[in-house]
Queue: 3 jobs
Job 1
Amino acid sequence: TDVSPTNQIELGAVVWISVFVGLGLALACIFRPKLAPFLAPLYALAEGVFLGGISKAFESQWDGIVFQAILATIGVFFATLALYVFGVVKVTRRFQAVVIGATLGIFAMYLFGLVLSLFGVDMVFWNDPTPLGIIVSVVICAVAALNLFLDYEFIRRNPDFVQLVA
C-alpha cells in the first residue's frame, strides 16, 4: 500500500488477493457451515490483511485517523451495548422497520450514485466536507450504530445460532 506521486492511494496485490480469498472463504462458510470452524480463522486472517492494508493507506493520508476510528468504534459498541443491556433502547418491530428502511435507503443512495458515476455524474456530495456532506455522514454513522441494536436483538433471540457459529 503506497501513495502515488499524484497523491492517490495504491493498494498492493496482497491486499486485493486478501479481498477475494476472504470472499471465497465467506461463501464457503455460508454454503458449507460444517467447514466454518476450520475456515473461519483463515477468513479472519484474510480480512485482517485487507483491513490492515486499508488502514495503512488511510494512515498514510491522514495521520492518526486509524486510532481515532478504532476508539470511536469501541466507544459506539460499548455505548450501544450498555443502552441495550440496561433496556434504555427496546428493539420493537417498528424500530426494526425504521432501521432496516434507513439502511436500505442509504444503500439505494450509494447505488444511485454509483450508477450515475458510470455516466460521468459526480454524486458523491456525502464525501465532501460541506455542511450537507457532514450531515449525511453523521446520519449514516447513526444508522450504522442503530444496526448494532438489531444485531444484539438477533443474538438474544437466537442463542443456538450463535453457539453454532462459535
Job 2
Amino acid sequence: MKHLVSLVGLIAFLMVVLPGPLYKFNMVELGTAFAGFRLGVYLGGAALVLLLVQVLFMRKTVSLTSALITVFFAAVAIAMPLNMMNTAKSVPPIHDISTDLINPPEFVAVVPLRADAPNPVAYAGEETAAQQRKAYPELKSLEYNQTQLELVAATTKAMENLGWELVNSDVNNGIVEATDTTIWFGFKDDVVVRINDKGSKRVVDIRSKSRIGKSDLGKNAQRIKTLIDELNAVVVQ
C-alpha cells in the first residue's frame, strides 16, 4: 500500500510538472499538456485519499518520510493547476496589451515570425481595450526628456537585460521589437516599443501580445510593467 500511495503521488506530480517542458520541446500538443494538468489534479486528490486510508486502516505500513513525500507531490499536483485557474479568473481573457489603446504600436519585423501564430498580428480591438482599461488602468503612455536615439538604445539595452530576443531596433522610426519566451511552456510573446516626439519630450508606448491562447493570465501586462521598470533603470544610469 505504501508503495502504491507514493507511486500515485509521484505520477500526479509528474503529470503537472512535465507537460510544460514536453510542449516546449514539441513532444506533446498543447491540448495534451492541459489534459495532463487536469489528470494530475485528480491523481493528486487520489493520492491524498489513499494516504488517509492507509493512515486510518494500515497505520503500521505508514512511514513519516513516505507520507510527507506523498503529501508534497499531491499538494504540488493540486495547487499548481488550481493557482493557474484562480489567476485566469482574476484577469480578463485577453492577450494583447498596450499603453496606447487608441493607436497601439504596430509590429513590423515581428510580423513574419507570427505567420503561423493562432493570434493574428493586428490589434485585438475595442472589446479588448475596454477590458484592459478596467483591469490595468495604470498602463499609460510614458514621457521622457531623452532623445529618440537615446531611448532606442536604452530600450534595446533593457530588453537585452531581461533576456529577450531582440528582433528589430530601428533608430530612424523609433521602433524596437523583441520576443520573450516563457520559461515553463516556452510560449512566445512579442513586444514592440514605439518612440514619438511630443514637443520637447518623447512619448514611449509599449505593446505586448501573445502568439497563442485567448487569455495570457496577466502575463503581457506584467511584462510591460517589467520593461518599464528596467527601462527607467537604464535611463537613469
Job 3
Amino acid sequence: EVLEVFSYACPHCAHFQPYADQIKQALPAYAQFTYMPAIFNAQWEPYARAFYTAQSLGVLDQTHQALFDALHRDHVPLRTIEDLAGFYAQHGVDRAKFLAASGSFEVESKLARAQEIVRNAGVDGTPSVIVNGKYRVTGSSAGGFPQLIELVEFLVKKEHAAATPAAKKQ
C-alpha cells in the first residue's frame, strides 16, 4: 500500500498532486494507492470531513483535483463544511445529502482512524507518503518530488520482493 497523507488546505499537497498521479499510474498491479487526509489544526478538519464525505458518496474521483484547483488556483473561499457542501453541489451532489453524510458515523469513524494513523506513523507534515505502513517519506527527505516518485517505486518493489515466497527462501 502507498498512502499519501495530505490536506486540501496544504499548498504543497496541491503542488504534489500531479506527482501523486504519476505514482498511482506507475504502481504495479500488486500495489494500491490511497489518500488519507491529515488534521493538524481545526482549519483542516472540514477538508478531511469533505474528503471522506465525497468518498462515501462516490464522487471523490471526479472532485479531488477540482477541490485543489478551487482552493489553490482559483482561490475560492471554502473554509467550512457548509462552504464545501456548496462546492460539491456545483459538482452534482445534493447539498443536504452532503451535509447529512458529513456527520455520519462512517465519516466520523474514518476521521478518528486517520488521526490515529497520522499520530502512530509520526507524520508531522504534508504531503507525506507511507509505503506499506513501514516507510514514511516526504519530498524533503527524498530530495524533491521527482525523487520521491523514484523512492516510492523502489520501496514498493523492495516490500513486494520481501513478501514473495521466493524471496523468503533465500
